[in-house]
Specification:
Strand content of chain B: 25-35%
Largest sheet of chain A: 3 strands, antiparallel
Oligomer: heterodimer
Radius of gyration of chain A: 16 Å
Order of helices and strands of chain B: HEEHEEHEHEHEEHEEEHEEEEHEHEHEH
Number of domains of chain A: 1
Distance between the termini of chain A: 26 Å
Largest interface: A-B, 17 and 34 residues
CATH class of chain A: Mainly Beta
Strand order of the largest sheet of chain A: 2-1-3
Largest sheet of chain B: 6 strands, antiparallel
Shape of chain B: flat
Radius of gyration of chain B: 29 Å
GO molecular function (chain B): DNA binding; DNA-directed RNA polymerase activity; protein dimerization activity
Bound molecules: zinc ion
GO biological process, one term (chain B): DNA-templated transcription
Number of helices of chain B: 11
Number of strands of chain B: 18
Keywords (chain B): DNA-directed RNA polymerase, Nucleus, Transcription
Subcellular location (chain B): Nucleus
Number of domains of chain B: 3
Structural class of chain B: alpha+beta
CATH class of the largest domain in chain B: Mainly Beta
Shape of chain A: flat
Pfam families (chain B): RNA_pol_A_bac, RNA_pol_L
Helix content of chain A: 10-25%
CATH topology of the largest domain in chain B: RNA Polymerase Alpha Subunit, Chain A, domain 2
CATH topology of chain A: Rubrerythrin, domain 2
Strand content of chain A: 15-25%
Number of helices of chain A: 1
CATH superfamily of the largest domain in chain B: DNA-directed RNA polymerase, insert domain
Chain lengths: 80, 374
């Protein structure tokens, strides 16, 4: 799988049932399709939905610093 | 011309490593064939069985101390190295992180998880769990995962505010729910026959449930699953069954000339407590000519009580009055082992397993030598 190209993850990649689930919240997929992205407010830590072209601003406190959320994909590490 | 055979005393003296004020001499062993003219020091199984002794001083699950007497340093060292690097344990090997919004980075978190010692039912660990085989080329690694070589664990913690906390509470453990993530928060997820082997008391669990893994604040979350495999310490230290496995040689203290009265008290203070004791000079000793005790009946003299407790600090050799009255040394074939288990094995079982492992290695070597000659 190319790193650049985004693929919507499916739950069927995992062969070993117990070894790490790869399921992704379906709400995220819907958000992705509707073009709404969620960010985290740098001031009040609220989850801020933003549409394309919307002002980069927290709807709760008005702060202008928003952080990107962590990936919803599973990340694998060696415990070494 | 037949040479004089060594006396029992000679043989004992040859076993002593001399510890002098500033040097250590007679370090290497001399009891090998061809070293002493006319003496036979060939390896002999009967002699090994007769001379080798093991004496336990302390034997608890977490720590054992014992003496291995009558073997060469190479054998004692082989046991030590096998205990550290070749006795298998299970440890977390892969971490699948679904979410980690804590301040501790994924890599560091995975590394910390790997180092947590786990334990479980002996029957399951010894006889049921096997090595993870290498996957065949162009096959995914998961194709080799089975219930007998892979154990899965989960850790799902979310930190929240504790509404019941007293006003003005400062302790994060009371102020928040799951402000600290501990090893006991890890959940064992048995698969297949693991349900049978690791049931109830025998469940896979951290040896020390209070190991701190991470700290969280409200809103932060750790959600991950892990898999464990069997491994050995030569691959990674997390697989080593011992925290320490070390030996030292038994110290010897020989008092050559009498040390009496105030000197004896001072001499005792040169050693850790319990090494040197004070005893009264008996009438017989005082009566014996040339014993050095003449006319000192009833006075206190220094006697060696327990040289095993000595740290061989050589403090006594710094004092002019004792310098020529005492000889320090170590017994070259008396190894005082100290084995501290990380909890998956009982510490004495680790030593027994190391003996079995050395035996197995010797057997394999023998087969290879046979094949080589053929
Ligand atoms: Zn805000």
């Amino acid at each position: 799988m190319s790193r650049e190209q985004y693929q919507i993850p499916t739950g069927s990649q995992q062969t070993f049932a117990a070894g790490g689930s790869n399921t992704v919240a379906t709400s995220t997929n819907r958000e992705f399709e509707t073009g709404i992205m969620h960010y985290t407010c740098g001031d009040c830590a609220a989850r801020v939905p933003l549409e394309k072209g919307a002002a980069i601003r927290c709807q709760k406190c008005g702060a202008r610093v928003l952080y990107k959320e962590r990936t919803k994909r599973m990340v694998q590490f060696e415990a070494r | 011309m037949p040479r004089k055979q060594p006396t029992e005393e000679d043989l004992e003296r040859r076993k002593i490593v001399s510890v002098n004020a500033e040097t250590v001499t007679d370090v290497t062993s001399t009891d090998f064939p061809g070293n002493w003219p006319g003496e036979n020091h060939a390896w002999d199984i009967e002699k090994v069985i007769r001379d080798t002794k093991i004496e336990f001083h302390q034997n608890e699950p977490a720590e054992a101390s014992f003496s291995l007497i009558g073997v060469d340093a190479s054998i004692a060292n082989a046991f030590r190295r096998i205990m550290i690097a070749d006795i298998p344990t299970i440890a977390i090997e892969k971490v699948f992180i679904d979410n980690n919004t804590s301040v501790i980075q994924d890599e560091v978190l995975a590394h910390r998880l790997g180092l947590i010692p786990f334990t479980g039912g002996r029957e399951g660990l010894d006889n049921f769990m096997r090595w993870l085989p290498k996957p065949k080329d162009n096959e995914p690694i998961e194709s080799t995962y089975f219930d007998y070589n892979t154990i899965s664990l989960e850790l799902k913690v979310t930190c929240t505010d504790n509404p019941d906390a007293a006003p003005g509470e400062k302790d994060p453990r009371k102020l928040y729910n799951h402000g600290h993530v501990y090893a006991k928060d890890i959940v064992f997820a048995p698969v297949g026959r693991q349900v049978k082997y690791f049931a109830g008391e025998d469940a896979i669990r951290p040896v020390n449930p209070d190991i701190l893994i991470a700290k969280l604040r409200p809103g932060q979350q750790i959600e991950l699953s892990m898999i464990m495999h069997k491994g050995v310490g030569s691959d990674h230290a997390k697989f080593s069954p011992v925290a320490t496995a070390s030996y030292r040689l038994l110290p010897t203290i020989t008092i050559l000339q009498p040390i009496l009265g105030r000197d004896a008290e001072k001499f005792a203070k040169c050693f850790p407590e319990g090494v040197i004791g004070l005893a009264k000079v008996t009438k017989e000793e005082a009566a014996r000519q040339g014993s050095g005790y003449e006319g000192h009946a009833g006075e206190l003299k220094a006697v060696v009580v327990n040289p095993m407790l000595d740290t061989v600090s050589r403090e006594c050799l710094r004092h002019g009055e004792f310098k020529d009255k005492v000889r320090l040394g170590r017994k070259r074939d008396h190894f005082i082992f100290n084995v501290e288990s990380t909890g998956q094995w009982e510490s004495d079982a680790i030593f027994l397993a190391s003996i079995a492992h050395l035996k197995e290695k010797a057997r394999k070597l023998e087969q290879q030598v046979v094949d080589m000659v053929r």
